[in-house]
Amino acid sequence: MTDYIRDGGEIYRHSFATIRAEADLAILPDDVAGVAVRMIHSCGMVDLVDDLAYTLDVVEAGRAALEAGAPVLCDANMIASGITRKRLPSGNEVLCTLSDDRVPALAERLGTTRSAAALDLWRDRLAGSVVAIGNAPTALFRLFELLAEGAGVPAAIIGVPVGFVGAVESKEALIERAPAPYLTVRGRRGGSALAVAAVNAIATKEEL
Amino acid sequence: MTDYIRDGGEIYRHSFATIRAEADLAILPDDVAGVAVRMIHSCGMVDLVDDLAYTLDVVEAGRAALEAGAPVLCDANMIASGITRKRLPSGNEVLCTLSDDRVPALAERLGTTRSAAALDLWRDRLAGSVVAIGNAPTALFRLFELLAEGAGVPAAIIGVPVGFVGAVESKEALIERAPAPYLTVRGRRGGSALAVAAVNAIATKEEL
């Protein structure tokens, strides 16, 4: 039988050491580098660094918000499922409203996707929250609309929707507007695993 | 406000058309190409095609198993969370045993990760199942061990663990052994989203 490393802690340490040796992290602030390591770990691509865009305060702002008990608002159930609860510093609520019974009718009324309509149910929770959008570009666009309408401003926005329609544009709009401290990945790459990795990294300084 | 496409169906159609225009799908069998489109859609990278490895019967075998009511066995809760239930043809069970109370003690006894130990709870369900491993290389290695010990053979294996320790090796071992019809992505790339996309594509011929 093939021999392989079976110790979870050792696997993490080897993985993170390989990433730190290969990825060009020197250009990043220390705390963002820590987040980048975890994001790279989740996708297997060290060149993800080249596409990272962020505000210098995003990790500090996100972590402070979580320590103060802020909820994490996710656009996809996969993200809510992937966030490691024991890394969250204050037993923070992790909320995804996509499956809420009100969403289909809301989507029809707004003439948009369910992913975007689901954000309307975040309206009262947005102020000071940590937003994690890793699936739908329409959700990120909808966030800008809600903020333009006067919704409360999040403490930090992890905005990494993925794909071929609107992903590039929504993330460039996030960079241009910067309505709050943010972290994103330019281009088509993105997804739930990257959003989860970013939240798990921001949640605590502990690597393991 | 930025204009953007808000119609979910139109977003899918545009996305899939872009992928079919850009990705080198001609080298793939038709049914595998359909799965590749969905996997590319989930990660934003058309060059994923270059790393696909598979047996010619994997889509047919996986779909037939699901139509006959086979369960989907997942190594990560994110995968179980991401599989679109209404695409499954027979109300199939989607099972992830990672959070089972017995797993921590099992992992300690076996001297392995919880992800790998969780597979021991699949033992009686493996025969004829659709396996979706998208996170832990140790889970894929453990699957080989269970099969070597005489566990029932799955109908199809989606084996796309991600990362820097064991991912490459476990997937090369899958290709070399081919213990059942399989689909994998060579190299470090992989993850829950790719596993979910593959299962969602295999589940039904319907694209939308």
UniProtKB/TrEMBL annotation, chains A, B:
<dbReference type="GO" id="GO:0009236">
    <property type="term" value="P:cobalamin biosynthetic process"/>
</dbReference>
<dbReference type="GO" id="GO:0016993">
    <property type="term" value="F:precorrin-8X methylmutase activity"/>
</dbReference>
<dbReference type="InterPro" id="IPR003722">
    <property type="entry name" value="Cbl_synth_CobH/CbiC"/>
</dbReference>
<dbReference type="InterPro" id="IPR036588">
    <property type="entry name" value="CobH/CbiC_sf"/>
</dbReference>
<keyword id="KW-0413">Isomerase</keyword>
<comment type="pathway">
    <text>Cofactor biosynthesis; adenosylcobalamin biosynthesis.</text>
</comment>
<protein>
    <submittedName>
        <fullName>Precorrin-8X/cobalt-precorrin-8 methylmutase</fullName>
    </submittedName>
</protein>
<comment type="similarity">
    <text>Belongs to the CobH/CbiC family.</text>
</comment>
<keyword id="KW-0169">Cobalamin biosynthesis</keyword>
<dbReference type="Pfam" id="PF02570">
    <property type="entry name" value="CbiC"/>
</dbReference>
